[in-house]
């Protein structure tokens, strides 16, 4: 089973590295990295990843993982071929997934009706006709979305459970020693902190 991780400039590294660690822990899953070209791709914080495939060469896969970016509105204006490739490959997948603002790319491609995303991007999902959930992971048929950044680990664990069963998912979770605590979310923090955070994220969008 192939799991293909979409790469593009200014993606958020943990959005795909987290799910990669989870999915790559399952022996029958092989990881691939797809981008517009085979040139190395730099994340928003400087991590450089080399693709294994291009949008032109890879036409089918079992699982797609679309990471988000802190500059998602800029990406929505010009996805560099990501949206078109998703539209092309989605009919071939068993699971099409996103992490963080990656769900806005799925929405732009017209592939999702209900999803979660980073709290700063909820409006961008809503204006694209998507029912926005504040849940950490959302299943919408074969489309699975995880909320912001670290939620990609939760999304991938839920995906492993759906595909291979609870025991495999538990083994993977313990294997990577994932036990987040204490729980905290945008909707549970003091309003003054939430307001400041929202302003900071909005300022990135220009």
From TrEMBL:
<dbReference type="Pfam" id="PF01965">
    <property type="entry name" value="DJ-1_PfpI"/>
</dbReference>
<dbReference type="InterPro" id="IPR052158">
    <property type="entry name" value="INH-QAR"/>
</dbReference>
<dbReference type="GO" id="GO:0016829">
    <property type="term" value="F:lyase activity"/>
</dbReference>
<feature type="domain" description="DJ-1/PfpI">
    <location>
        <begin position="3"/>
        <end position="161"/>
    </location>
</feature>
<protein>
    <submittedName>
        <fullName>DJ-1/PfpI family protein</fullName>
        <ecNumber>4.2.1.-</ecNumber>
    </submittedName>
</protein>
<dbReference type="InterPro" id="IPR029062">
    <property type="entry name" value="Class_I_gatase-like"/>
</dbReference>
<keyword id="KW-0456">Lyase</keyword>
<dbReference type="InterPro" id="IPR002818">
    <property type="entry name" value="DJ-1/PfpI"/>
</dbReference>
